[in-house]
Fold this protein.
Amino acid sequence: MKAIALGLLFLSLGAEPFVPPKSPYIPAKTVPASTNQKCDWGTVVAVDAALSQLRVKAPDGQVTFQVSAQAPVIGADGKSVGTVAGLNPGTKVRVYYVVDDGAKVQEVDLCASDLECPLP
């Protein structure tokens, strides 16, 4: 009974229900968002299959990600368009990753426009 009374009190005071904050970046297309997920975007500098690395020139400088060369690359329609090994230098990408003993890639998306991946 007390819980109902408190609920009615909050409603009468105009309290709004909790709404989780929106992601500060465009959500990934195939990987669910998590509290640990981060996102960077920029142009591909190089893919080094031997070292399992993807290097991207981001607005804040070059970032080196840990990734399998066979990890899928996702197009604007949400479908796989190839693998990381097929990325060419200069390709604009958005990289979703988690930091766990390095920046480990969860998803790589091609940028459909400059608005999706604004560069300085």
Observations:
- The mean pLDDT is 83.
